[in-house]
Design goal:
It is a single chain. The chain has 12 helices and 8 strands. It has 260 residues and is α/β, with parallel strands linked by helices. Helix 2 runs parallel beside helix 3. It is globular and about 65 Å long.
Length: 260
Amino acid sequence: MPDWPGNLLRNALKQALSSGARQVGLWSGLASPIAAEIIAGAGFDWIVIDGEHAPNDIPLLLAQLQAMRGGTAEPVFRLPWNDAVMFKRALDVGARSLLVPFVQNAEEALKAVAATRYPPLGVRGVSIVPRANDYGRIKGYHHNAHLDICVIVQLESRAALADIEAIAAVDGVDGLFIGPSDLAADLGHLGDTRHPEVQAAIKDAARRIRATGKSAGTLAGNADDVESLFDMGFNFTATGSDVGLLARNAENVAARFRKS
């Protein structure tokens, strides 16, 4: 095992997913280090820094990782795509938990895992002193980094759901995450994640994922839906987003004083 400096905590999310423990998170799309610092200490287990649908690039990711250091939540970076170059850059600046969008099959899951491993285990490019190894201060980092890297693959289509068991069998996949919005669209119900067909598919996916022994995750529209998702079998879920919290609460306050 690596000789971790005392100021670098182990990846509690990866450990929790390996045991199937419940983990409650939040989506972050504000692309703001200040917002990230605020929510990181709020008590969540994990927070997604969204690089797919929010305006987050690598410098902004770095700033948010720095802001979240010392908080209660493990930062999870959702990559823009399953691309080895993006993995390399995110990992080097210190992201160690990654959510990979639109994984369709076991082959694509294998590609994602390989991008997080140095040769001979994978294809991650080698930098000697990145931020990820505390600028060269972590002994044995390059041989042991994969032990603390958490890979979560996002399933968002009928094709992906059909291959759940094969994807879950890929060594190095820590969790399978159901993307409800894109799944609803693929099922012909764009914008309607509560459609019975969509809900049935999500429930069946949770059951099948847990049956493989892997952790199952998804995103709740609001906190009121979380317990029902846990009842379905999911063990890690995000409870909305910082964007939604800000927008809806700002509207609620303004509505109290708006003239009719």
